[in-house]
Design goal:
about 260 residues; alpha+beta; Arc Repressor Mutant, subunit A; Endonuclease, Chain A; 2 domains; 10 strands; about 55% helix
Length: about 260
């Protein structure tokens, strides 16, 4: 059986198989039903290893063993394999989520929090800055900042950024409204785009000529993007926890926002 190496690589990645499992499964799929010897011949995998690999595929639901001698294996329809893997993924994710949701109630978590607080307290405020890479990591850090906001949040971003993260922004704004935290929302966009956002979130939006993205929490800490990449992994943010620096940026923002108000 001649199989393109690109297909082997893709199947291996998508179905989370090792190289032997991938080649044996592809050989079995091409035959429909076959003995271990036939699979070894077609796949090019040593016969001594083919038995173990077929048993592994059987346990994972990629194949079933036909009753009788010699033992033959039957390939499961790929669509059924996909559905099975989807169910396993959902089940595994739900179980992990359940464990994580209960983790904060454990003594281990309390000890972890204690260790963190003991370690973070002696640090000089000037040292509290970090580079955060990746859209998901930036969003996670921002959500934590929003969670701890007490008085005021300033959001300055672009219309395109909001539309690409609509659910995330909706979640943040609803959370701030419930906490009754003052929100100043500035957008770089056209008047039609600003009106659309005001209607979408039921808030007052400030028009601002600056094409930048930053978030200021309680004039205490700031998170800002240093590039305008639309690729998830290329997005880079800088977080700074400094009253002096953050208040300076907030003051500049207030001046620019005031100038641009009708």
């Amino acid at each position: 059986m001649i199989v393109k190496q690109e297909l082997v690589k893709k199947i291996k990645m998508h179905f989370d198989l090792n190289i032997y499992e991938t080649k044996v499964w592809l050989a079995l799929v091409s035959k429909g039903i076959a003995t271990a010897g036939e699979i070894a011949e077609v796949s090019g995998i040593p016969r001594s290893r083919t038995y173990d690999v077929l048993e592994s595929l059987e346990k994972r639901g990629f194949a079933i063993a036909k009753i009788g001698k010699p033992i033959k294996y039957i390939a499961i329809k790929p669509v059924l394999v996909i559905e099975k893997l989807k169910k396993e993924l959902v089940k595994g994710t739900n179980e992990k989520m359940n464990v994580l949701s209960k983790l904060r109630e454990t003594n281990e978590y309390k000890e972890l929090e204690h260790l963190y607080k003991e370690g973070i307290n002696p640090i000089d405020k000037s040292e509290l800055s970090a580079s955060i890479k990746g859209k998901n990591n930036i969003s996670a850090h921002l959500n934590d900042m929003i969670e701890n906001a007490e008085n005021e949040v300033i959001i300055c971003t672009t219309y395109n950024d909001i539309m690409s993260k609509l659910r995330s922004f909706s979640h943040m704004i609803n959370k701030l409204k419930k906490k009754k935290v003052s929100l100043k929302f500035a957008i770089n966009g056209s008047q039609d785009e600003i009106k659309k956002i005001e209607s979408q979130f039921d808030i007052k939006v400030i028009s601002i000529p600056i094409k930048s993205r930053f978030y200021i929490i309680d004039q205490r800490e700031i998170l800002f993007n240093i590039n305008d990449s639309e690729k998830d992994n290329d997005e880079v943010g800088i977080w700074i926890d400094s009253d002096f620096f953050t208040k300076s940026i907030a003051h500049l923002f207030e001046r620019v926002a005031k100038i641009n108000q009708p």
